[in-house]
Amino acid sequence: MANKFVSILGVPFINTTMDKFIDLVQNHIRKEEKTFVVTANPEIVMHAKKDDTYKKYLDKAHYITADGIGIVKAASIVGDPLPERVSGYDVMMRLLKEANEKGQRVFFLGASEHVLKETVAKTEKDYPGIVIAGSQNGFFDWKDPSLANRIKEAKPDLVFVALGFPRQETWIGQNLDQFEKGVFIGIGGSFDVFSGNVKRAPEFWQKLNLEWFYRLIKQPSRWKRMLVLPLFALVVIKNKAAGK
Ligand code: UDP
């Protein structure tokens, strides 16, 4: 069945549940089809609006999922609701579980060396069925082709790219053509959370859709970046009113 998409300020989000999305990704892995996944929040949408080069990289993505509650709310505002969030961290956890059961090859790209080491160690311990195809911290020379060559040779089924936005979409967009297979997915600071170096909001906050507020309290330095959230809401509402 064809996938349905919801356009939020020109960015097409896949209309899917988490379960269906994981099935979709597994299908691509089975068929060895190269796939680029973006898990996008309002910051990404706003960035794409003002940066044409970044938008071109997003245009290369096969799927863009609703990472944040802001996107789910925006979809309701435009009258084309999405069933739920399909967040980067949750997708990573689900894909690790599948990879463990199926013995898939996973490459970890991103975060500090310390966080990356802990991420790999935790994967080896908790998901022994996974084949670690390789890993690289997120502070490498982008002009050096050896990383892409290593990934090519490692032939991973899955590549988690945890460089933060807009770096991860940019890196995947610039390098995707070189690879023959693999699901490449940008997942922001997920290695920091997975390895226990950054705490995710407790479920109570998540249920109230206040994860963003929890992060703001924990990392007050983020407040400036968060100013984009009310702006995003305003533009979505204005466009809706203008019938765009
Ligand atoms: N990061 C990286 N390479 C860089 C910059 C950041 O791998 O050049 C990693 C960083 O260590 C963290 C993740 O990207 O694990 C997310 O960083 P940040 O919080 O800055 O980005 P966000 O996704 O929250 O925008």
UniProtKB/TrEMBL annotation:
<dbReference type="GO" id="GO:0047244">
    <property type="term" value="F:N-acetylglucosaminyldiphosphoundecaprenol N-acetyl-beta-D-mannosaminyltransferase activity"/>
</dbReference>
<comment type="similarity">
    <text>Belongs to the glycosyltransferase 26 family. TagA/TarA subfamily.</text>
</comment>
<keyword id="KW-0961">Cell wall biogenesis/degradation</keyword>
<dbReference type="GO" id="GO:0019350">
    <property type="term" value="P:teichoic acid biosynthetic process"/>
</dbReference>
<comment type="pathway">
    <text>Cell wall biogenesis; teichoic acid biosynthesis.</text>
</comment>
<protein>
    <recommendedName>
        <fullName>N-acetylglucosaminyldiphosphoundecaprenol N-acetyl-beta-D-mannosaminyltransferase</fullName>
        <ecNumber>2.4.1.187</ecNumber>
    </recommendedName>
</protein>
<dbReference type="GO" id="GO:0071555">
    <property type="term" value="P:cell wall organization"/>
</dbReference>
<dbReference type="Pfam" id="PF03808">
    <property type="entry name" value="Glyco_tran_WecG"/>
</dbReference>
<dbReference type="InterPro" id="IPR004629">
    <property type="entry name" value="WecG_TagA_CpsF"/>
</dbReference>
<comment type="function">
    <text>Catalyzes the conversion of GlcNAc-PP-undecaprenol into ManNAc-GlcNAc-PP-undecaprenol, the first committed lipid intermediate in the de novo synthesis of teichoic acid.</text>
</comment>
<dbReference type="InterPro" id="IPR034714">
    <property type="entry name" value="TagA_TarA"/>
</dbReference>
<keyword id="KW-0777">Teichoic acid biosynthesis</keyword>
<keyword id="KW-0808">Transferase</keyword>
<keyword id="KW-0328">Glycosyltransferase</keyword>
